[in-house]
Amino acid sequence: MQRMENAYGRLLEVLALAGCALVLGMMLIICADVFLRNVRILPGTVGLAWANDLTEAGLYLTTMLAAPWLLRRGQHIRVDIVLRAIPKRAAWVCEWLSDILALLCCLVMVAYGARMAWASYKSGAMTIKTLITPEWWLLAPLPAAFTLLAVEMLFRMRRLLHGEHGPRDDAVTAA
Questions:
Q1: How far apart are CA 152 and CA 169, in angstroms?
Q2: Would you kindly state where each structural domain of the chain is located, as residue ranges?
Q3: What is the tens place of the pLDDT at every residue in 122-136?
Q4: Which of 23, 72, 84, 144 is most deeply packed, by most CB within 10 A?
Q5: How far apart are CA 144 and CA 76, in angstroms?
């Protein structure tokens, strides 16, 4: 089981690196857009009309790629002031409750996202902006990302089960 969890961690690292590459690509596109709007080196070209469409999609995709990795590292948003103030055993139970609730939310998002993406694919819905693209292209990563988040929630629950009975030490607000 530990080897499977380690392999899964490496997969999440690769996805996070892909998210970083997307951020780099968005930065280059934005720089090129601003440059071409202000310096007329190509006749008839004033910026990159499609830059906003790509960067909007890139922000969303970066979030989908990085979220499971951030959860694994304990770098998601977490308010743990109450967990630090209550007895360790009660905090451990609260960790379980939040993990179960998070897992259920992830599974709902997987089901709903998959239905949305499939319905969009079947209907042939298009997103019409500067670029015209099939709508399902942007909907498909949602269930995939939430599937990865659900799997990570299961690994978190396993670590919680085998760890010390108290609040997690990852993502603490104060040292």
A1: 17
A2: 2-162
A3: 999 999 999 999 999
A4: 72
A5: 18
